[in-house]
Specification:
The chain is mainly β. Among the domains are: 23-256, Immunoglobulin-like, CATH 2.60.40; 262-287 and 736-793, no CATH class; 558-694 and 713-734, no CATH class.
Length: 793
């Protein structure tokens, strides 16, 4: 009997030891132990950044990170340990980030999604385990959140995101395509310690879309950004000689019995505006506008979400940063920031931006379906735009957008896109196919073919008659990309018919056939070297008129873009090259000049501008505790497009981010551009745009901000190459000048995504004094308020 008792005790001890060993499973990233069995525990944890509950002793432990930037493959200098477990309704992460260099942690109590210049941890969850798109959850050492999505798809962001491939202008092409606009519900907390910092994150399954399966695996990447050194570390040992970053993820295996519950979010919204402007009698008048609307989000299943909106609020709380516009030929791109479009926006991405949601300007109502069924990504939007945006002012424009993308073996995809804008008998429709195929880890091929059909002129304002015009044309694209550690390239062909139209996309130039070839070389310093990386990116492109290929190229460029990363986080870069450009006579139809005898004659359009040499230099400081700065200077020969004449451009840009306290942040930036005529050195235009943004984070939920931007623009009267005045429509062109200041004030209370209170005031003033900044005259102003409350059923 005694022997049996001893045997039972031994078996019990072995069982307990096995349980303890399982509970304390350690996964060494550098050893390739990146397949993690995450324990499912019926437990709760207070998200406080302390990690003192017993449940954390049972979590899987992820250790031994590798450096990814600026040099991959080396052991991380700063130790990082990640603890992970999941309960029925959420997945929990605890991160201990050790700092071996003392008190150098960079962190402020910033507003959400505003921690780019701070130490932080990013958790990437590929919940479909398809290496295509990952949810991104980031926190700084104080637990301030950033969230969004990341993918390996380069460019074509429906909301304006942009990234590039192996032969791209970025020395590190694996920055990927990151969108921080979506906001997800998750809990986080953090604290700075004597040897680094500790953060804790809880992500409810209700906030995610994931596979419709009882047992599933998720891809995972854990990234750590160390600002004082400029290093980025990853737990899964990712390398730069790979065209897919998400394809190098680790794996969370055996996830089961995930309880998402009912996902039904209702968000009623109320907005109010008082817009002020001068009246005819000189007084100041305000017009009020109060709107009641609402959004609804229903998780049909864990892999499919339906969103609806009625009279949505699409007001932009932060105005777009001023862009230089005096010498632009094509429309400028502004990113999507409007709430209704943001969830699942990454599923609408397509090559060459065939879907651009800001084309839906002011919808009355909309519905959106987004998710993934088996291996097929599905994303659709149907929206009715404001009738004031129609030709006749009475018809409601209807937008329909659909994007499908199917996973192929080896991380490849096959996609389709369909868009339409219908306005009575007028329409603009397109259909397209695209595919991306990876091979040999370092390479991918991307193909695209699109056809559009457009009818305009069938709908006209009252009293105006016109005949309908029908247009139809294709768009083609093909690219081959190599993402190597020391050598990468990108070769591509792009063609757009003059009759191609994308009313729901952003194709700002047609009638082009473009060939381009880029190469990228990178060298790496030894560990601890002063020069950590040095690289050169170079190549060229040629553009022909699509409808006249035999006439030779109308534009071209050759360039070299060297750059270097120095020890401590300094970045230096330069850009030198040559352009040539051929003017399109159609752009100058109707222009005339004086003929010397008191009459006018047609404007003579020169054929070509050759040898447009340019050069620029940029320097960026490390992220110091209290500031980060960048400055650039450029000088170039450039065409003055309005005059079809040779010009000389000088541009200066500078920006500094100040962090005097953990709660106060300020960004000061300025752009100065001058454009001179090369024939005599006279000034054609000048533009100055200084901008100051100051933020004060009173509490994690309460935020104050003021933005001031001054825009000074001057442009002389148009003259031809001989100095003769140019007439437009029979009238002499005139010089123009504007000096305008815009000020925006905002109070924000946002305890969680969806629930918020905004109060703001904005004013536009013209600088009318003889000297700048002495006398301002108000042109427009306005008060606005927004209240919304998220009800999670």
């Amino acid at each position: 009997m005694r022997q049996i008792s001893i045997a039972c005790l031994l078996l019990t001890a072995l069982h307990l030891a096995a349980e303890n060993s399982s509970a304390q499973s350690v996964y060494n990233g550098r050893a390739g132990e990146i397949t993690v069995h995450v324990p499912r525990l019926e437990a709760e944890s207070t998200v406080d950044g302390v990690l003192d509950e017993p449940v954390w002793t049972e979590a899987a432990r992820l250790t031994d990170f590798s450096q990814f930037q600026p040099v991959d493959g080396r052991p991380a200098v700063e130790p990082t340990e990640v603890l992970v477990w999941y309960a029925p309704d959420a997945i929990h992460f605890g991160i201990r980030a050790t700092e071996v260099h003392g008190d150098v942690v960079r962190a402020t109590r910033a507003n959400r999604d505003n921690i780019a210049s701070e130490d932080k941890i990013q958790i990437l969850l590929d919940t479909y385990d398809d290496n295509q798109i990952a949810f991104l959850f980031g926190v700084n050492p104080f637990g301030v959140q950033e969230d969004g999505t990341r993918s390996d798809q380069f460019g074509g962001g429906a909301g304006g995101r942009s990234a590039t491939g192996g032969g791209s202008a970025r020395i590190n092409p694996l920055d990927g395509n990151v969108d921080l606009n979506p906001d997800f519900h998750f809990d986080s907390a953090g604290r700075v310690t004597s040897d680094g910092y500790v953060v804790e994150v809880r992500i409810p399954f209700k906030s995610l879309r994931y596979q419709d399966a009882d047992v599933q695996n998720w891809g995972i990447h854990i990234l750590r950004r160390v600002q004082h050194s400029g290093f980025q570390d990853t737990w899964a040992p990712a390398v730069r000689a790979n065209a897919s970053f998400l394809g190098q993820s680790g794996s969370l295996t055996g996830l089961r019995d995930l309880e998402r519950g009912l996902v039904l979010d209702v968000t009623p919204t109320a907005t109010g505006r008082l817009d002020g402007a001068p009246a005819d009698d000189g007084s100041w008048e305000y017009a009020d506008d109060v709107q009641i609307g609402g959004d609804i989000r229903w998780g049909i299943r864990q892999n499919l979400t339906l969103n609806g909106t009625v009279n949505p609020d699409f007001s932009q709380v932060e105005a777009d940063v001023g862009q230089v516009v005096l010498n632009e030929r094509f429309a400028l791109f502004f990113p999507e920031k409007r709430p209704f479009f943001l969830e699942g926006l990454e599923l609408f991405d397509s090559p060459n931006q065939l879907i651009y949601t800001r084309r839906i300007v002011s919808p009355e109502a909309g519905v959106k379906l987004a998710g993934k069924v088996d291996k097929l990504n599905v994303a659709t939007i149907l929206a009715v735009d404001d009738q004031d945006l129609s030709v006749d002012g009475e018809t409601l424009p209807l937008f329909g957008v659909a994007r499908l993308r199917r996973d192929l073996p080896g991380n490849g995809t096959l996609g389709g896109v369909l868009t339409t804008r219908e306005e009575g008998s007028d329409y603009s429709r397109l259909v397209g196919l695209d595919s991306r195929l990876y091979h040999s880890q370092k390479y991918f091929v991307e193909l695209q073919a699109v056809q559009s059909w457009t009818r305009t002129g069938a709908e006209t304002p009252e009293g105006v008659e016109s005949d309908p015009v029908d247009l139809s044309g294709p768009l083609f694209g093909a690219a081959w990309d190599r993402t190597g550690r020391t050598w990468g390239f990108n070769q591509s062909i792009y063609a757009v018919s003059p009759e191609f139209r994308a009313a729901a996309g952003f194709v700002n130039r047609v009638n082009v056939f473009r060939l381009q070839s880029f190469n990228r070389l990178t060298a790496y310093g030894r560990e601890g070297a002063f020069i950590e990386t040095i690289g050169a990116f170079g190549g060229g492109w040629r553009i022909w008129a699509y409808d006249d290929l035999g006439a030779g190229p109308i534009e071209g460029n050759e360039f070299l873009f060297p750059s270097a990363t120095l020890r401590g986080g300094w970045n230096l870069s330069a850009n030198v090259g040559r352009n040539f450009f051929e003017y399109d006579p159609a752009n100058y139809a109707g222009l005339e000049v004086e003929d010397g005898s008191g009459g006018l004659e047609s404007f003579d359009v020169p054929e070509r501008e050759d040898d447009q040499f340019y050069g620029s230099f940029t320097v960026t400081t490390p992220t110091y505790r209290m500031f980060t700065a960048t400055a650039s200077v450029s000088r170039s020969r450039t065409p003055i497009f309005a005059e079809a004449a040779p010009g000389l451009s000088s541009r200066y840009d500078a920006a500094i981010d100040l962090r005097p306290t953990p709660s106060i942040r300020a960004t000061l930036q300025a752009t100065h551009l001058t454009l001179e005529r090369r024939r005599d050195g006279s000034q054609f235009s000048k533009e100055l745009i200084p901008r100051l943004k100051v933020e004060y984070q009173l509490t994690p939920a309460i935020f104050f901000r003021v933005i001031t931007q001054y825009t000074a623009r001057e442009r002389s009267a148009l003259r031809d190459r001989d100095g003769r005045l140019i007439y437009v429509g029979g009238d002499p062109s005139e010089a123009s000048e504007s000096d305008r200041m815009r000020m925006d004030w905002l109070f924000s209370y946002r305890p969680s995504p969806g629930t918020l209170v905004y109060f703001g005031y904005g004013s536009t003033l013209d600088d009318v004094g003889q000297q700048r900044f002495r006398s301002f005259e108000r042109q427009f102003d306005g008060f606005f308020a927004k209240l919304s409350y998220l009800i999670r059923v």
